[in-house]
Write a structure and sequence with these properties.
single chain, about 290 residues, alpha+beta, eight-stranded mixed sheet, two-stranded antiparallel ribbon, 9 helices, globular
């Protein structure tokens, strides 16, 4: 592509080299692409909807009206007209976590490190040595899932200012089983959009839907003719307070009940133009059942 050659031209050039060389090389473009380490995923676009459905199904062309998955009449929009009215803030792009992992895992198969010891509270050096990490490994045993390894992910989310009008809001992922020096360099850009303010919560919908699927149905990965299976589970999310409230589907950090740990009630001081939070014991803590309700 860098030299504007067609796929067929690349393949023909490889055949010519084979004729001139004593050492054979791969000649089909798909094989050259696979072995050269190129990642060409499907980049899906979804438009936000001002309806309870929240988001359209995958947009294939901007020239055809699109609706939600349920094909509700109130959800039908014209991508072209929506773009003219609202610009880039009307949609976001999404790359499948499954596609990312099927590309990365075969490359770093021999670098993956899985725990071989029980949790030790006196020896915590990484997210892969903490109590929550080992709880995810025990989760499959309690559910009687098949004995496949578990890949865990750290998800990051924040805004990056790109000009005076817009900010980029990427959702990125990291594979925790990779050594830290490799992990921090292998960033999976999962979702991305540009807005003047933070995007709607629906930008996370397909992330969580895909993780729910991979949590119970293992991912199949082929490595040099061998097939490996992995469960994929979310270990942690790194985000600031406003982003965290969106992820947890909670009110914002400056609301009346802003804390995601307890039910402390804030009160507004007009003279200071700020909210304050009295820490009066005993505090009532939120529970896992509260978030799942």
């Amino acid at each position: 592509e860098r030299h504007t050659l067609s796929n067929a031209a690349v393949s023909d050039f490889a055949k010519l080299l084979n004729a001139c060389s004593s050492t054979s090389i791969f000649v089909t473009y798909s094989t050259i692409q696979r072995l050269s380490g190129q990642f060409k995923p499907e980049i899906c676009r979804y438009f936000f909807l001002n309806t309870p459905c929240g988001v359209t199904e995958k947009v294939k062309t901007f020239d055809t009206d699109i609706s939600c998955r349920n094909e509700c009449k109130n959800c039908s929009i014209s991508p072209n007209e929506t773009l003219k009215m609202f610009g880039s803030r009307s949609y976001f792009c999404y790359i499948s976590i499954t596609e990312w992992l099927k590309f990365i895992l075969p490359i770093f198969q021999d670098k993956l490190v899985f725990p071989e010891r029980p949790f030790d509270p006196d020896n915590i050096s990484d997210v892969t040595t903490g109590k929550e990490y080992f709880r995810l490994f025990d989760y499959g045993k309690k559910k009687n899932f098949k004995n496949y390894p578990t890949i865990t992910l750290t998800i990051g989310y924040d805004g990056v200012v790109i000009d005076n009008k817009n900010s980029l809001y990427p959702i990125v992922g990291y594979i925790n089983e990779l050594p830290f020096d490799i992990r921090q360099k292998i960033t999976m850009v999962i979702a991305l959009g540009a807005w003047k303010t933070k995007p709607p919560k629906e930008i996370f919908r397909f992330v969580f839907e895909e993780l729910q699927e991979l949590n119970v149905n293992p991912l199949e990965v082929q490595v040099e003719g061998n097939v490996y299976y992995y469960y994929v589970r979310l270990l942690c999310i790194v985000a600031d307070a406003p982003a965290r409230s969106d992820i947890l589907n909670m009110t914002a950090h400056n609301s009346k009940f802003p804390c995601n740990t307890c039910y402390v009630k804030s009160f507004y001081i007009r003279e200071q133009k700020a909210s304050r939070f009295p820490l009066l014991a005993p505090l009532k803590f939120r529970t896992n059942s509260h978030f799942q309700a």
